[in-house]
């Protein structure tokens, strides 16, 4: 029970002093003090490690990708008994939450990136980086096949085969076009630095095109019609940034454009920002209306030609309408990368849409492969699947019934192994499983409770409804990376002293505590120095103060002092000189 | 004589107090107080000006290009009686002397550009900008034909035809490949912002490629062999910047590369920087040797394949040798753009290599077309061509001989119309033409000199040897731009009160003084915080102090306070954090 109490005390303090929450966020620089850890097998042998390059005693860890998850793993890895190979087509880490700012020049692309070699340079761990892209994962032989996209004439050797003892897959996701015709060809995406740079050039190009002589008003309006598809945080932030860019900077230089420019935000559901609190959604929708951003909800895109975008209303009999555009930015959701799809087929996950891992981030069916970040989801174990095993383990005297005492002994292990149990109790305002049993078994006196398997099953039957997939955010990926690094750091120690919960379907304990996500809040910048923030404990803040909170959090979360200084100076430049509109 | 005296006094002050020169340079923010002006005809009528957009009474000036010459013209134009159309494929002005710094990330590309719309925004002159490229100049009908390269579907209207009353051609030059096979396909150039960005990415790519596994030492050396062709200021500065980038920043992140990297500078003549003082050349060559930059002079490039560069020695029987490379930067010289070549054919200059203008920057043979900057040269009038007309004009009493009095009356006009006369006198340390006549006519008493045409011819026969083409530098282009703007500003005033020299082959005076270039000095940054500076009066400074002079001059010359602040903060960033090596 200690844990629940701590949580409640924390939660109360938080609610009573919202400013404390602010402080907490501001000073939480890294993914932050997780108290959950994981198990990992250590039976990987040494295969085909090149002895000339690497100490043969060291285990080789191959990390694919240099995004949030991979970089967080590398930053937190401190056990020098590994030989680490990082393979990624990008030799830098990009602070993606600032990508929408890059599209409009509020922040320069180079200010939000840090070379991965710089990040790992001063570590006590051997880390080598190769700029290449993995195109095949051979789990059976513990090899990954990579290809370098760098120019040059080393064609004969462009394929690189790397052996691993442990593989960490953190390749992220791709933008999802949902196979809608014309999306891939005609839309801009917003996942990579290059995407943001391209969008920036295209915005300026549109304004230049609209300034050419001999255009009709209609053509000018068409060129200056910017469409954003997807009302999630990225799409909303981009639309808001674009609106600021246009009204604060571009109209000064392109006075004629003022009347013609139009921004449309398309969203298939009824509201934008629907993962946020309703107050935030309402505020955002009102603000966009005031700003003149054309909000079209309940409309699905069905086709995009090079000139027009066709939408179909979700309700009202599915009325189809078409509008011409100058630029479309597609920001609807993510999909699985081809290399992961192939890998899933090989390991028997071919019928799934996303790569599944267990709660320790191990890919299901592959002992020495871990997957984190947007490329995987944690396939949480259901209580109902294990209910019999749990009952057997708890019922130490094999009496066929559980007493309160027996129950309390396994309680914390159950809550740790199946976090949905804790969430369920919290949502029902119960303090312990005993309450739950009491609740389901009527008015029996607490001391005398003794339940059989069927009653136990009934009591826990609703628990699994609390299970939710984690959102595909930078925050989750970063926490997973640092969690996994921590497991790797203490691999041997925890081998001897396992710290995880009881194995209900086996002997002994799990080596590590399972991964537990700690939500630190989320921002939705709405333009005009207004930001909505939703912090833990349903604390919602909207307005200028949240904008400053946003500035502080993002500045503090940046990966290095260099990027921190650059981003802050970029903000300063923007305040003083505005955003640049050169076509480069 | 007044003018010579001023010059000499200035020159003496300068030599006695070199620090004064420094101050002068530091505080000379713009192209600087020229005292020479030009004539321009004002007979252009109004053709096909679109009356809905433009006040029909205003004369339409079309400016092609937004480089040094065009932008300097626009910045200095202040007469609101013109309607100005600027047409250029780049919607910004780039401070090109800092391009070599951009190649290595010492300065960010965006810091050295300023949108042309921003530059002309607050002017009292109507200036419109169109992002398009001129592909045909029709001097007969006073029209230019342009094409927009902006994407989009306005194909049917991509061709834009613009009428002009005055045309200002300032499209600059292209890089000259001298038709050497493989240069266009395999080399990087260094003329545009995009070139510098590409070079930067390629440098980092080369280092990443060289870090891939399974490469032989030989292949690694080949990939890290950077070749710079051309020992002029740009090539030398790039080689020096690259050396600094490698030794100060890249070797920290790519420790294995240290031994393999090699920089080679190829120059066809015997020395690099041969337009500079010999002391500077010697210092630069020594410094490069110390730095380990491989200097290969007297070697012409004859072929460049995708892997190797073939050179031929100019002396020693033309020995041919071949070396593999990772990247080649081509920085040898400039050539005429195709649109100007076509234009030259149409106006009868087809047999020339460069477009010729007169001393007032008017294209020869076209009254209302001006050409400035790198796309044209001033075809200076020879004294010998006009010697008879000069004699006739001076000999007012038609006596067939010139007296001292007659002579002194036309003296300043001769010096102004034919600047080579002044240079000749200066080089011979003579104070006036009278000295020259004395010199050539022996010991005749000054007062009694009276020369006939033949004697006069003889005295001036060596004068034309002083004629030199102006260098293709930003300094010349900027001075020409501001000179021409000044002429346009005072067009009407000077129509009534011509201020130019006597017309020797006609009646009256020229409307404006001819363009006169004022050399303010030149820098050659040599890396490692060492710069060579050659200032007027043969004042040479080499070392750290010149580097600071360089910083101050370049900072002060930047086009706006925004770019000034950005470049200075970029320098600061570099000092603190080093240069970035992300592959973006």
TrEMBL record, chains A, B:
It is found in: Mitochondrion inner membrane; Peroxisome. Gene3D superfamilies: 3.50.50.100. The keyword DNA repair does not apply. One of its GO terms (cellular component) is mitochondrion. Residues 382-417 form the EF-hand domain. It catalyses: a ubiquinone + NADH + H(+) = a ubiquinol + NAD(+); a quinone + NADH + H(+) = a quinol + NAD(+). InterPro entries: EF-hand-dom_pair, EF_Hand_1_Ca_BS, EF_hand_dom, FAD/NAD-bd_sf, FAD/NAD-binding_dom, NDH-2, NDH2-like_C. Its main location: mitochondrion. It is an enzyme of class 1 (oxidoreductase). It is a peripheral membrane protein. Pfam families: EF-hand_1, NDH2_C, Pyr_redox_2. Keywords: Calcium, FAD, Flavoprotein, Membrane, Metal-binding, Mitochondrion, Mitochondrion inner membrane, NAD, NADP, Oxidoreductase, Peroxisome, Transit peptide. SMART domains: EFh (SM00054). Its EC number is 1.6.5.9. PROSITE patterns: EF_HAND_1, EF_HAND_2. One of its GO terms (molecular function) is oxidoreductase activity. The keyword Membrane applies. Belongs to the NADH dehydrogenase family. This is External alternative NAD(P)H-ubiquinone oxidoreductase B1, mitochondrial. It comes from Erythranthe guttata (Yellow monkey flower).
């Amino acid at each position: 029970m200690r844990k629940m109490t701590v949580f409640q005390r924390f939660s109360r303090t938080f609610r009573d002093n919202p400013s404390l929450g602010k402080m907490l966020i501001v000073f939480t620089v890294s993914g932050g003090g997780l108290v959950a850890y994981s198990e990992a097998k250590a039976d990987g042998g040494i295969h085909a490690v090149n002895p000339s390059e690497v100490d043969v005693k060291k285990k080789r860890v191959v990390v694919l990708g240099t995004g949030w998850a991979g970089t967080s793993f590398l930053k937190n890895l401190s056990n020098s008994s590994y030989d680490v190979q990082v393979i990624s087509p990008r030799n830098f880490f990009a602070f993606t939450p600032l990508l929408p700012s890059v599209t409009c020049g509020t922040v320069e692309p180079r200010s939000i990136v840090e070379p991965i070699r710089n990040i790992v340079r001063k570590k006590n761990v051997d880390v080598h980086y190769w700029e290449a892209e993995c195109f095949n994962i051979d789990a059976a032989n513990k090899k990954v096949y990579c290809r370098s996209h760098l120019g040059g004439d080393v064609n004969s050797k462009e394929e690189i085969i790397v052996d691993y003892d442990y593989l960490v897959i953190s390749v992220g996701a791709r933008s999802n076009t949902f196979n809608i015709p014309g999306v891939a060809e005609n839309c801009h995406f917003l996942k990579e630095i290059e995407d943001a740079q391209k969008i920036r050039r295209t915005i300026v190009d549109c304004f230049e095109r609209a300034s050419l002589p001999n255009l009709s008003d209609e053509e000018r309006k068409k060129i200056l019609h910017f469409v954003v598809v997807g009302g999630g945080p990225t799409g909303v932030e981009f639309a808001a940034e674009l609106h600021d860019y246009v009204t604060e900077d571009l109209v000064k230089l392109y006075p004629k454009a003022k009347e013609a420019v139009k921004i449309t935000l398309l969203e298939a559901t009824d509201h934008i920002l629907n993962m946020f609190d309703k107050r935030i959604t309402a505020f955002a929708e009102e603000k966009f209306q005031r700003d003149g951003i054309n909000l079209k909800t309940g409309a699905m895109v069905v086709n995009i030609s090079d000139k027009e975008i066709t939408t179909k209303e979700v309700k009202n009999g599915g009325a189809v309408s078409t509008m011409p555009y100058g630029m479309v930015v597609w920001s609807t959701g993510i999909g699985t990368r081809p290399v992961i799809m192939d890998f899933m087929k090989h390991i028997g996950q071919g019928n799934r849409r996303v790569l599944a891992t267990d709660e320790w981030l191990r890919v299901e069916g592959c002992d020495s492969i871990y997957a984190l970040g947007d490329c995987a989801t944690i396939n949480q174990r259901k209580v109902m699947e294990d209910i019999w095993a749990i009952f057997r383990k708890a019922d130490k005297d094999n009496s066929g019934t559980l007493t309160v005492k027996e129950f309390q002994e396994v309680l914390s292990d159950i809550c740790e192994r199946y976090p949905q149990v804790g969430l369920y109790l919290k949502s029902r305002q119960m303090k312990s499983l005993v309450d739950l049993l009491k609740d389901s078994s009527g008015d029996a006196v607490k001391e005398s409770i003794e339940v059989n398997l069927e009653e136990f099953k009934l009591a826990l039957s609703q628990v699994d409804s609390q299970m939710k997939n984690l959102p595909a955010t930078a925050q989750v990926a970063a926490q997973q990376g640092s969690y996994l690094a921590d497991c790797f750091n203490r691999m041997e120690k925890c081998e001897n002293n396992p710290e995880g919960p009881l194995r209900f379907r086996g002997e002994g304990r799990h080596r590590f505590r399972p991964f537990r996500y700690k939500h630190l809040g989320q921002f939705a910048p709405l333009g005009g120095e207004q930001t909505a923030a939703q912090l833990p404990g349903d604390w919602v803040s909207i307005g200028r103060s949240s904008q400053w909170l946003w500035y502080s959090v993002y500045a503090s979360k940046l990966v290095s002092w260099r990027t921190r200084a650059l981003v802050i100076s970029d903000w300063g430049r923007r305040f003083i000189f505005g955003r640049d509109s050169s076509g480069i």
